[in-house]
Design a protein that fits this description.
This protein is α/β, with parallel strands linked by helices and 443 residues long. The protein folds into 2 domains: 38-68 and 346-442, Aspartate Aminotransferase, domain 1, CATH 3.90.1150; 73-344, Type I PLP-dependent aspartate aminotransferase-like (Major domain) (Aspartate Aminotransferase, domain 2, 3-Layer(aba) Sandwich), CATH 3.40.640.10. It contains 15 helices and 16 strands. The chain has helices at residues 3-14, 58-61, 70-80, 94-106, 120-137, 158-162, 167-170, 197-215, 240-252, 304-310, 329-344, 347-361, 363-366, 392-402, 424-442, and strands spanning 37-41, 44-47, 52-55, 113-117, 145-149, 181-183, 219-224, 228-229, 235-236, 255-259, 283-286, 298-302, 371-377, 380-385, 405-406, 413-416. A hairpin with a 4-residue loop joins strand 2 (44-47) and strand 3 (52-55). Helix 4 (94-106) crosses helix 11 (329-344). The two termini are 33 Å apart.
Length: 443
């Protein structure tokens, strides 16, 4: 038995893997093969038998600057010798202070207060609770309802799942969830003949306003993934939607929550996706790429106006939510090193050139007769497969592994979210091998 096979057998015996039907891992021929990863370097992962795989999805959208990045490694090692952790209740430390300052500065201090947790769903829970509690502190406790987009995904804890509209994640837990209002998605793929993406966005906004007219007195907040709804098949939409939504939320006194967990940290072409609409939300959730893919870290940024609704001598008006590892120093140092790379390497500008090369490398796929809605936003690409069968995503994943690619389609949608470090040879390889995999799978 090879080392890889040994790891797989032991893992199947004792590890319950996420987002997985475990039975599908038991037969690599007919199910989904389990990858026994031993190490990573740059854009590549290596299994226990040292076979390489190009990580074209950034290990679930988190790894921005490659595995075992020397600069992030050095920052964590330096912090490890100083302070590994201290509670953030009643204590503070320099990494969390510096990270909060730098993120606030990136918003021009429109969002000046950071509340920390460890994962994206926890950040969404915090934003939902903060919104309701803020209104209650203002004497508006009836504002307790939430609004989400059709196909929106915001995590799988109970509160986050309540504002998620992806059936496979939420249906089993329906009896536990408070129903949220679901409004039309601005997904540009819904365009009628002669309609632009902006036209679709305006139709979707009209649906929001209809709801606000009747329910705004009871609605605390609306939550959106700015520009790209990832888990629903990478629905992309025009920034005008965010501009109009910000206006509606202001007019009807509804908080706007921007879930930038997947789309923040430069993924859409600007550091924050909301920048492309020239608006700021009341709450902005970050996770995934903020630590460079190294350590669990999430946070919610809020406006000073929100912060002031909690600022009071009465402890009951304070926000008493907590996590044991809130603002962990090691995770914050990883995040600071990540932000430093953005600045030192002028990453956003470099990514524009890199994205153009990737789009060119994927051009044969975009032109393929079985492909529709080829689309791109910053460092995200996706296309839908015409006539994809129910088994398409599993077969594509397995076939891609045979060609040393880590790609994980969602239903009939193939997507790419590579780290921001691919060189020309890796870009060419990604384009050529993906086309080969695609043609093999649809044959």
């Amino acid at each position: 038995m090879t080392s890889g096979n040994n790891w797989i057998a032991r893992s199947l015996q004792h590890v319950w893997h996420p987002c997985t039907q475990m039975q599908h891992h038991e037969n690599a021929e007919t199910g989904t093969p389990l990858m026994p990863i031993n190490r990573g370097r740059g854009a590549w992962l290596y299994d226990a038998d040292d076979k390489p795989y190009l990580d074209a999805i950034s290990s679930w959208w988190v790894n921005l600057f490659g595995h075992a990045n020397p600069r992030i490694n050095a920052a964590i090692k330096d912090q490890l010798d100083k302070l590994e952790h201290v509670m953030l209740a009643g204590c503070t430390h320099e990494p969390v202070i510096m990270l909060s300052e730098q993120l606030a500065a990136k918003t021009g201090h429109a969002l000046g207060h950071c509340f920390y947790a460890s994962d994206g769903a926890s950040a969404v829970e915090i934003a939902l609770k903060m919104s309701f509690h803020s209104w209650r502190n203002q004497g508006l406790a009836d504002k307790r309802e939430f609004v989400c987009l059709k196909g929106g995904y915001h995590g799988e804890t109970i509160g986050a799942l309540a504002v998620t509209d992806v059936a496979i994640f939420r249906d089993a837990y329906g009896p536990l969830l408070n129903a949220a209002h679901v409004v039309m998605s601005p997904d540009a793929r819904q365009a009628h003949d002669g309609e632009s993406a902006a036209d679709v966005a305006r139709r979707a906004i009209a649906d929001v306003e209809t709801l606000f007219i009747s329910r705004a007195d009871s609605i605390a907040a609306m939550i959106v993934e700015p520009l790209v709804q990832c888990a629903t098949g990478f629905a992309m939409y025009d920034p005008v939607y965010l501009q109009l939504l910000r206006e509606l939320c202001d007019r009807y006194r509804v908080h706007l929550i921007a879930d930038e967990i997947a789309v923040g940290c430069g993924r859409t072409g600007t550091f924050f996706a909301c920048e492309q609409a020239a608006v700021w939300p009341d709450f902005l959730c970050l996770s995934k790429g903020i630590s460079g893919g190294y350590l669990p870290l999430s946070l919610v940024m809020s406006t000073d106006q929100i912060y002031q609704t909690f600022y009071h001598h009465d402890i009951r008006r304070g926000f008493l939510h907590s996590h044991s590892y809130t603002g962990n120093p090691l995770a914050c140092r990883a995040a600071l090193a990540t932000l430093a790379i953005f600045d030192e390497d002028q990453v956003l500008a470099a990514n524009k050139l890199r994205a153009a090369k990737i789009t060119a490398a994927l051009a044969p796929l975009a032109a393929h007769p079985r492909v529709q809605h080829f689309r791109q936003c910053g460092m995200i690409w996706a296309f839908d497969v015409i006539g994809a069968d129910a088994d398409f995503s599993r077969r594509f994943f397995s076939t891609a592994l045979q060609q040393e690619l880590l790609l994980r389609p969602i239903g009939k949608t193939v997507y790419f979210m590579p780290p921001y470090i691919l060189d020309d040879a890796e870009i060419a390889l990604l384009g050529q091998r993906t086309l080969s995999v695609f043609e093999q799978v649809i044959a």
